[in-house]
Design a protein that fits this description.
By secondary structure, this protein is an alpha/beta fold. The chain is built from six helices and eight strands; from the N terminus they run βαβααβαβαβαβββ.
């Protein structure tokens, strides 16, 4: 979920992530409609998850008690990317199927493994790390018709040049563009003839 200016911080609620003085938590709430709900239900199918530490902390405090809405998130494997969390941390051991990973090599090992798709939700710093190391196969973006100015950005530090192909898209009645882009090789350049 991103704004037109690329902010992805705290889309779900006012107190979700106020770091950096962010004032607009819950900025997606006014844009829900039937088309959006249908697209979201498609994305809530069973998967495994890699989450940054901050997103993991938010989710570990919420989803175990709200699994009736999204059972797959509690049943799927959850990997928290953190250099500071320990495998024995109560937050990790308290949310079943959770483990700590610490390096890009760990992510590459997971990516090569057989099993379910691996999704990343939120986790702006983790996404930037994945983009920097060319570990993103697909981007599922929900682009909202507003700008937020300050906040955590989807594309920030060190994304490598990469091409993507649009494979699915929906525009909701509230103007949210829901688009799926798959990785499509290198950036091609040329000259526009007039």
């Amino acid at each position: 979920m991103i704004s037109l200016d690329g902010v992805m911080q705290a889309p779900g609620g006012p107190k979700e992530d106020t770091s950096g003085g962010f004032k607009y938590g819950g900025w997606t709430a006014a844009y829900t409609d039937e088309a959006f709900g249908k697209a979201m239900m498609e994305e809530l199918k069973p998967a495994d998850y890699i989450l940054g530490r901050k997103t993991f902390q938010i989710w570990a405090g919420y989803w175990p008690e709200h699994g009736d809405f999204w059972p797959a998130v509690n049943e799927g494997a959850k990997y928290v990317f953190s250099k500071n969390l320990k495998k024995s941390d109560p937050m990790v051991t308290g949310w079943k199927h959770s483990a700590v990973i610490k390096t890009v090599a760990d992510i590459k090992t997971l990516k090569r493994s057989k099993g379910r798709d691996i999704q990343v939700w939120g986790s702006s710093e983790l996404i930037q790390l994945l983009l920097r190391h060319d570990l993103v196969d697909e981007l599922r973006l929900k682009i909202y018709p507003l700008t937020l100015g300050k906040g955590k950005k989807l594309f920030g530090k060190g994304s490598i040049p990469a091409a993507f192909t649009l494979t699915e898209h929906v525009v909701t009645s509230k103007g949210v563009i829901i688009a799926c882009y798959k990785r499509a090789g290198k950036v091609k350049t040329g000259t526009i003839e007039i």
